[in-house]
Each structure stands twice: as C-alpha cells, then as structure tokens.
C-alpha cells in the first residue's frame, strides 16, 4: 500500500477492507478484534458544505460513541455541581 492510500485510510476518507484488517492483524500478530473498530460506534455531529481546496465536498465529522458518553457524564457532573452551588447561595 502506498503512502497516499494509507493516509486516506488513516484520515477515515477510505475504508479498511476486512481483508486488510486481517493482514494488519497478521502483521501485528494480534487477533483482528483487538485492532478492528467498527464504524457503528460513531455518531455524526456535523455536516457542512465547506469550500476551499475541496470545493463542493461535504465534510462529515464523527466522534466515537465512547467519547460522547464521557462528555455526557462530565456535563451531568457539572450540572449537578451548579445545582448544588445554587442551593448554597439561596
């Protein structure tokens, strides 16, 4: 695989095929499920029609679900802290 193909996969612009996952696992001498990350755990948070070097291209940004869950928990903690501080100020 040349550098540009690898770069597209690394950036998420091209998918890694099941066969490529198997090859990577063989090279790394690990089970496929240890390195494979399915796309179904990502949530799309923004879609825009940015222009520039890639005019007319839709840019889609995604965040893995586990990161969103971490942020949700942090927000809940902050909301609780705000509520407690408001109770003290009454």
Could you please describe the fold and organization of this structure?
This protein has 90 residues and is α+β, with helices and mostly antiparallel strands. The chain has a domain of 36 residues. It is 53% helix and 14% strand. Strands 1-2 form a two-stranded antiparallel ribbon. The longest helix is centred in the C-terminal third of the chain and has 25 residues. The radius of gyration is 20 Å and the shape is elongated.
Features:
90 residues; alpha+beta; two-stranded antiparallel sheet; 4 helices; 2 strands; 53% helix
What order do the helices and strands come in, and which of them pair?
Elements: H1 3-10, H2 18-28, H3 32-35, E1 42-48, E2 59-64, H4 65-89
Antiparallel strand pairs: 1-2
Quick recap of the structure?
By secondary structure, this protein is α+β, with helices and mostly antiparallel strands.
**How can the largest sheet be summarized?**
2 strands, antiparallel
Spatial order of the strands forming the largest sheet: 1-2
Overall mean pLDDT = 76
In quaternary terms, these chains amount to single chain
Poorly predicted parts: 51-56
Strand content: 5-15%
Backbone CA Rg: 20 Å
